[in-house]
Amino acid sequence: MTSLLTPLAHPVYRRLLAAQIVALFGTGLATVALGLLAYELAGADAGLVLGIALAIKMVAYVIIAPVAGAFATTLPRRRVLVAADLVRLAAALMLPFVDAVWQIFGLIFVLQAASAVFTPVFQATIPDVLEDEATYTNALSLSRLAYDLEALLSPAIAALLLLVVSFPWLFDGTAIGFLASALLVLSVRLPGAAPKDDDTIGSRLKRGLAIFRHTPRLKALLWINIAVAAAGAMVIVNTVVLVRASLDGGDVKVAVALAAAGAGSMIAALVLPRVLARWSDRAVMLGACFLLAAGMAAGFLLFLKAAPTFSALLVLWFVLGVANAAALTPVGRLLRRSTQAEDRPPVFAAQFALSHACWLITYPLAGWLGVAVGLDVCFVVLGGLALIASLAAWRQWPVSDQGALWHHHEAVRHQHQHVHDEHHQHEHEGWEGPEPHSHPHRHGRIRHRHAYVIDRHHPLWPQAD
């Protein structure tokens, strides 16, 4: 029987989680400091500066992550993670010395590009460290809790530090976080990269995206990403407007409203391991998406009234936080179940990039709609997008999502790195060397049944017999 804390018994995972936490808190301090730096340099245009910086972050994620995932397939994972942390450390140390807005943009791109390398490789490593699915599920919940705790506590810690130091010192706290993360990663031995194959970087990049394109549950995940981004952008972008303009609240109430969404996410993360032990990933994730759409409809009805209440907004944001975590926390399970070990880095990187591409669209959409047509219409448009995406995900994801499928292979002759398994039963002459090895070999035509994922030998999803 596993509990939420079971993954912490694994020494490698324990240190990796600690690395994630200290890096997250460092990033949280940088977020606060960056806002103050932008105001110092740009004054009333600070919001525009931060908006552009946020867009740069998303562009870096979308462009860099898939390429990094393709490279990381064969590179030593520990070196990749440490190098990314050191690049982030260097960027953080340089931020206090900038004296022009364009320098902020350049350093933010460097820092976020390094994060786009670090995060998907880190995420792809955890399922190889924790091979038991129940333990891995609990690890996903712990990771979700780490993100939520950072969102809640980093601003508070930054506020306390600002009582005794000026804001540039917060960037030093960021650097310390990245340095600690690098040292923690260096202190463990990680699973090795997959054996070097005959593929190019381009073919590995294409394979990560092809696995998404041809796996039904991952095609559904693309729509789930859209539903999450639609509702999440409403919370992140428009909370301050809803509280300050519609409810006449102050800064404290803005923080409390955001904390309500974070609290909902945290509570969902705590209970999800037990929920996922009883219910399928499909039921939980799709149910969460429809709850997001329903919450957006409730928001429309709430702010259509003449006098919406702050307490009603807190309840709504709490529910959206629960639904957000329920839709996102099982993603790692889905990706692991849909890939071979050697394909995990490019597939996790593809998910990282595709999900952030959704945010790149919904962030500005939420802001523009709120200003141009009003918050009530903004709820309708983004809620409608969440509903359409939920219906599309429900249609793409088969109700009977079987792991083992009957399928057949045509006869083929090719060459690649391999071991002798159910797909490789050929004779050897003695010169081929130890496994895994690469040499020309032939597959005869066969029909069989096993846990099915898209890979080198299974390029398409089998049709039902």
Your description of this structure?
The chain is mostly helical. The protein has helices at residues 11-42, 46-72, 77-94, 101-129, 133-162, 168-186, 201-214, 216-246, 251-278, 281-304, 310-328, 331-337, 344-372, 375-396; strands spanning 404-409, 412-418, 437-443, 446-451. Strands 1-4 form a two-stranded antiparallel ribbon. The chain has a two-stranded antiparallel ribbon with strand order 2-3.
Query: How many strands, what sense, and barrel or not for the largest sheet?
Result: 2 strands, antiparallel
Tally of strands = 4
- Poorly predicted ranges (pLDDT <50, ≥5 residues)? none
Structural class: mainly alpha
Terminal CA distance reads 38 Å
What is the helix tally? 14
Strand order of the largest sheet: 1-4
- Apparent shape: globular
| H/E element order | HHHHHHHHHHHHHHEEEE
Our estimate of the beta-strand percent is 5-15%
Key structural traits:
465 residues, two-stranded antiparallel ribbon, 14 helices, mainly alpha, 4 strands, 71% helix, single chain, globular
Topology:
Elements: H1 11-42, H2 46-72, H3 77-94, H4 101-129, H5 133-162, H6 168-186, H7 201-214, H8 216-246, H9 251-278, H10 281-304, H11 310-328, H12 331-337, H13 344-372, H14 375-396, E1 404-409, E2 412-418, E3 437-443, E4 446-451
Antiparallel strand pairs: 1-4, 2-3
Helix pairs in contact: 1-2, 1-4, 1-5, 1-6, 2-4, 2-7, 2-13, 3-4, 3-6, 4-13, 5-9, 7-8, 7-13, 8-9, 8-10, 8-11, 8-13, 8-14, 9-11, 10-11, 10-14, 13-14
